[in-house]
Amino acid sequence: MAWDFSTEPEFQKKLDWVEEFCREEIEPLEYVFPYAVRSPDPVVKGYVRGLQQQIKERGLWAIFLDKKLGGPGFGQLKLALLNEVIGRYPSAPAMFGAAAPDTGNMEMLAAYGTEEQKQRWLKPLLNQDIFSAYSMTEPQGGSDPNLFKTHAVRDGDEWVINGEKWFTSAGRVADILFVMCTNGMFVVPRKTPGVEIMPEPRNHNHIIYRDVRVPLDHLLGPEDGAKVLAQRRLGGGRIHHAMRTIAQCKLALDMMCERALSRESHGKVIAEHQMVQEKIADSYAELLQLRLMVLYTAWKIDNTSTQEARTEIAAVKFTMAKALREISFRALHIFGSLGTTDLTPLQAMYAGAPTMGIADGVDEVHKATVARRLLAQYRPQQHPYWPTEYIPAKREAAWKKFEPKFQAQPELRASAEAYKKYFAARRSG
């Protein structure tokens, strides 16, 4: 079938199980034991491991990895459908072994790591025995690798790293840091001497690397190969962020519809007010557009490659941030004062939308990427003055094309002249 919007029945059963499992097991756990996956308490850790064993038995662990990299190999389209469920629950990605920043780091290790590196770092990351962070952006250069200054120098049997990184998310609680240098990607244990984590920001850490020494085998992939590894990591990360954003937008829509049917204003429930209806309708349309866009992009990746789908991935990146911002903002307004508090997810959702537009490269960069790649498919107009779709020129060309037919059928020419006269009269008023 050339066009099909259905989900395979067997895979739908998996999605149904994931939805029930998240609702009945993961969400309650989140409210009783926040950040349970990282809990040092052996009792809590044991409980989490029990839940995760159920996930593994269903073949749903580390869902982001291809089969050749050791994962279930669902492909991006099925992964999108899974993330659409998991993304609704903040702790679910971690419970399924599929939370950033570990996901991208594990992908790099799986694709470029030596067997020894995989045993040392990938296996413990997959088992959540350790956690990682991605140390890429810099204060003076943002996410532009051409402006980075952090560099590693070889000294005997070690690399010596010096530089400064900004917004290393979860760096403070990571066991290992994947540090992008101008001349390679390096794995640095957080407790290595010289790794200095600044007090602020608390969650997205500012880290200074002062004469940080790591063994030679802590270089991941080839020397000078950091950009290639980063693209592998970030390309997948962007589409995965978009998948989970669908879930957040759907949550906001569900909340605003429930609220609209529950509150009264000026003698009727607010769902009957046209401005509220407009907010709901616009949100539904934007959610549907984003969802179809993400699913199409995932399908294209499965059928071509991440490289071939670069335009679509970039377009999804800036579209998801805008959709999340607009839909959560409308929901917040429908909730009124309650929406501005931390008593519902809406305030955090709306506050997180700007971050979504900056993480993994600012939206403006992705818009420029889309524009450049699209413009490369076109050529300037051939006529010095008129565009290709200039109607008088097209009309003249059409008459020339018909000339042989007119010569063969004089009555056809007569009809054409009559048409021409009629429409000329209409245009002249």
UniProtKB/TrEMBL annotation:
Family named by the database record: Belongs to the acyl-CoA dehydrogenase family.
Subunit structure: Homodimer.
Keywords: FAD, Flavoprotein, Oxidoreductase
Residues of the Acyl-CoA oxidase/dehydrogenase middle domain: 133-201
Key word Transmembrane present: no
Record bears the keyword Transferase: no
MF GO annotations: acyl-CoA dehydrogenase activity; flavin adenine dinucleotide binding
Acyl-CoA dehydrogenase/oxidase C-terminal domain ranges (all copies): 229-375
Start and end residues of each Acyl-CoA dehydrogenase/oxidase N-terminal domain: 14-127
A single GO BP: fatty acid beta-oxidation using acyl-CoA dehydrogenase
InterPro entries given in the database record: Acyl-CoA_dehydrogenase, Acyl-CoA_Oxase/DH_mid-dom, Acyl-CoA_Oxase/DH_mid-dom_sf, AcylCo_DH-like_C, AcylCo_DH/oxidase_C, AcylCoA_DH/ox_N, AcylCoA_DH/ox_N_sf, AcylCoA_DH/oxidase_NM_dom_sf
Highest taxon in the source lineage: Bacteria
Cofactor requirement: FAD
Cellular component aspect of the GO annotation: cytoplasm
Designated name of the protein: Acyl-CoA dehydrogenase
